[in-house]
Design a protein that fits this description.
single chain; about 400 residues; mainly alpha; Growth Hormone, Chain: A; 2 domains; two-stranded antiparallel sheet; 18 helices; about 80% helix; about 0% strand
Length: about 400
């Protein structure tokens, strides 16, 4: 079709630039500025988060802690992690989202520097315990901030974008941390602490406080959260999935080593997790808005079950890589929807505490995972991965059973 001046311009969205703008707008458009500050800060923070993945190497290598003792030290850190998010949730509701997030980040940075300069075993143990507390102290405040600032219809998409930023930053941190750790650990601690400070100060300076005003706050505390049967049941379902999810870190490297594969093969398999999240989340996340959350979660648990079923038949790095790729698709669905479900259930004034409880559920699953997983692995890897398949399916069935109650609460 032509006009007086020649060919008519292409309709909007048909050019390469127009298609790119449409692609970005559908996935990232319409979200408030406060969310993007949080998104950028999370990316920076995770790009600098190089200490925790290499902590066992730091303890055994740089500080010459025996392997068995290092396991105890790391377990002490895990104990701190269990109480981290409930405490962070209380601080977010009591003192505000900005104060809790910034304070948590600065405390984490200070703890990292203390741990990096520790020499004696008692100081290392104490620093690891405090690190466990401060590592995720900010998370309930961040989740509550998204729920406060982002409209209900956009929350699932927003949480998915946040997950994408975290995984992108983590992937960069793993590569950079591996390179730097080969030349000493000192710089890792300073970069991680600096990233914490940047994130905390960025939120403090650029994000307005979103906590409800005092006159709008409903009375209640953690007892109110624990009396919410729907929330407690949902937290129980998350514990089941967390036990399965953590096997990727707790027992997968042991299972691969038992079949003669190297730690490099495990690193390659784990890189697939980050690649799948980075590639798939932008294609999936925006399609989840408006869908029934329980059905999406149940489907995510089922996909995770399929990934573990593939692992039960794996005998090579390629087989385990395929298992991780499938399970990661379920992970994308579960992590994006979980935070949105909590936002539906939580009264605005208790969003920090509700997110603290779900964080405690994740931590509890992470503590159970190595104990149960290693015992099942002794029986055999097939037993381990089929047990994980069964747990994932059980979580899916539990979610479907809970679905009517969640729909009633969301409709309010």
């Amino acid at each position: 079709m032509t006009g007086p001046g020649g060919p008519a311009p292409a309709p909007a969205g048909t050019t390469g630039e127009g298609r790119l703008r449409a692609f970005v707008r559908v996935r990232a458009g319409g979200l408030p500025g406060a969310f993007w500050v949080l998104w950028g800060g999370s990316l920076v923070n995770r790009m600098g988060a190089m200490v925790n993945p290499f902590l066992s190497l730091y303890l055994t290598g740089a500080r010459h802690v025996p392997v068995a003792t290092a396991g105890v030290v790391l377990a002490v850190g895990g104990a701190g992690a269990v109480i981290s998010q409930p405490l962070g949730g209380y601080l977010a509701d009591r003192f505000g989202r900005r104060a809790a997030l910034t304070g948590g980040m600065l405390a984490n940075g200070a703890t990292l520097l203390t741990l990096g300069h520790a020499r004696s075993l008692p100081v290392l143990v104490a620093a690891c315990f405090v690190l466990g507390i401060t590592l995720d102290l900010f998370r309930p405040a961040a989740q509550a901030l998204v729920a406060d600032a982002v409209p209900t219809a956009d929350r699932t998409r927003a949480y998915g974008l946040l997950l994408w930023a975290i995984n992108l930053g983590f992937s960069i941190a793993m590569v950079l941390g591996g390179y730097l750790s080969a030349h000493g650990f000192g710089l890792l601690f300073w970069l991680d602490a600096g990233a914490c400070a940047v994130f905390g100060l960025l939120v403090w300076l650029a994000v307005p406080e979103t906590r409800p005003a005092a006159r709008d706050r409903s009375a209640g505390g953690f007892r109110t959260v624990l009396r919410d049967r729907v929330m407690v049941a949902f937290a129980g379902i998350i514990v089941l999935y967390a036990v399965v999810f953590q096997q990727t870190f707790a027992t997968l490297p042991l299972a691969m080593r038992a079949t003669g594969m190297s730690s490099g093969a495990y690193g390659t398999v784990m890189a697939i997790n980050g690649i799948v999240v980075i590639a798939a989340q932008p294609l999936i996340g925006h399609r989840l808005d408006g869908r029934d959350k329980s059905r999406v979660l149940a489907f995510g648990f089922t996909v995770a079950a399929a990934g573990n079923a593939v692992a039960a038949t794996a005998g090579s790095a390629t087989g385990y890589g395929l298992a991780v790729a499938v399970a990661t698709l379920g992970e994308i669905l579960v992590f994006a929807i979980t935070a949105a479900v909590v936002a539906d259930l939580a009264p605005p004034a208790l969003r920090g505490r509700y997110n603290g409880l779900i964080g405690m559920a994740w931590g509890t699953g992470f503590l159970i995972a190595p104990v149960v997983g290693t015992r099942l692995l002794v029986i055999g890897p097939t037993t381990l991965w089929l047990s994980c398949t069964a747990l994932s399916l059980l979580a899916g069935l539990g979610q479907l059973a809970l679905a009517p109650a969640l729909r009633r609460r969301a409709s309010r």
